[in-house]
Specification:
1% of the residues are buried. 55% of the residues lie in helices and 6% in strands. With 131 residues, it is mostly helical. The chain has a two-stranded parallel sheet with strand order 1-2.
Length: 131
């Protein structure tokens, strides 16, 4: 109809849908006692997430990507090319705060210097942990 008002639709955040779905899958895995590789940034949620995993009887193994802003830009990842410099600064500030508070719980620190060997470093660290 010409001149008719557009119907009202609820506003739904794609990010919110993703987070709810991700959390739902994680809850199902944890409830079943399954091993989990949680590939996500935990800078802002680590304390609560770690506590929950420990309450469920899980052992944590935390890998921290401690890369410099210059190195991330040089990698040319799709994420680094889409994120503006202000957002990158916020990310690196949050990560520094995370390391200041929880750095002692990190099992592997990947840096600019050892990034190329990250797979071997992580496999050795996991082998050592399981030994």
């Amino acid at each position: 109809m010409i001149g008719a008002a557009a119907p009202e639709y609820p506003v739904v955040s794609a990010t919110g849908i993703f987070i709810n779905r991700k959390d739902g899958y994680l809850n199902k895995l944890l409830a079943k006692g399954r091993s989990v590789i949680y590939d996500a940034s935990v800078d802002r949620t680590w304390q609560a997430f770690k506590q929950r995993l420990e309450q469920e009887g899980y052992i944590t193994f935390l890998i921290s990507f401690d890369l410099s802003p210059e190195f991330v830009k040089k990698l040319g990842t799709s994420a680094s090319s889409l994120i503006d410099s202000d957002a990158m600064e916020v990310y690196f500030t949050q990560h520094k705060k995370f390391l200041d508070a929880h750095g002692s719980t990190v099992d592997v620190h990947l840096t600019d210097k050892n990034f190329a060997d990250r797979f071997d470093i992580c496999i050795k660290a996991i082998d050592d942990m399981l030994a």
